[in-house]
Amino acid sequence: MGSNKKESDLKKKASALLGAAFLMATSAIGPGFLTQTAAFTEQYKADFAFVILFSILLALGAQLNVWRVIGISGLRGQDIANKVLPGLGYFVAILVALGGLAFNIGNIGGASLGLNALLGINTDFAALVCGVIGILIFLSKDAGPVMDRFTKILGVLMILVVSYVTLTSKPPVGEALLRSVAPTDPGALLFPVITLLGGTVGGYITFSGGHRLLDAGISGKENLDQINRSSITGILIATIMRILLFLAILGVVSKGAALDPSNPAASAFQHGAGTLGYRFFGIVLWSAGITSVIGAAFTSVSFLKTLHPIIKKYEKLIICGFIAASTLIMVLVGSPAKLLILAGSLNGLILPVTLGTMLLASRRKDIVGDYHHPTWLLVFGVIIVVIAGYSGILSLRNMAQLIPR
Q: What's the CA gap between 275 and 224, in Å, rounded?
């Protein structure tokens, strides 16, 4: 009997570790990422391979730093921030939650457009369907394991579908490999690097996997190897998807096809694989949107739940309310362009603050105990904070444009 329980516990732990990896990966591959990748690939062609490679390296550094500190300390991001500087955790929690809500409106919108492309149903009705699916997942008795399974299935589905389109579009792989290390105009690639960095490790995304592991009871120095493996697995999953998506679109634009600026990713899939490609895009966009809805809602509320006992007590219901609010705003307001720009700006501001806080925490014995954070990882993190800080300055400019004159 004891042997069976131990085996069951090990399976649950393994499932949670893989689920956390997929939650982070699918959160990083939302509707915005699909659109950005298509638009930038059309603009920079094979040179965009350098941006993909560079953003992957930066994402690796950010994720390893954050996952390690959260995993070792057993504390959520906001609690760590409050220990580093009293009151900072409240600021970070509100910033992440507001950014998560704004992004979730876009995620719901993206998921509804995916259903529209796949089944041809009205986008408002599709948005309501997507909202209900998200709410049902968190109302289920075992919401954590259900969330893990859901993100795993849709994550694998996205990879398979994009792989098919990549094969049919026949991209110039050799040129992409060359330009990943020797771009023709490196100086012109700074803006897309910064944009992709904020969209793949900014805001709630960096913390989604680490917070999921804490909910599954996986923390402490004794679990460090498994925490590392989980974070690296998540980065590898996101990396595979980024590379395949880039190659699929590169195969189309390298042959001279012009993408529809109103929906460049859908246009690329249609050029690459015809009507079937367009339907496949619907699957990918819906999967990217709905998994990002789940990741944003779960992580945003996880930042709030230790701030007040009521939030922790009614966590599931608050997550459901978070999704319901995102869905209703999407249906009633439509595509809130300015809100999404503001959300992007918040994302650019959040990363240097949160990652910088984690780096300071990695040297605090009252947070990480006798754990020694690798110096190379600390230095890597500082470099990312500097780059993300520059991104934040650009974000402030975007915010200034939103203020009525």
A: 47
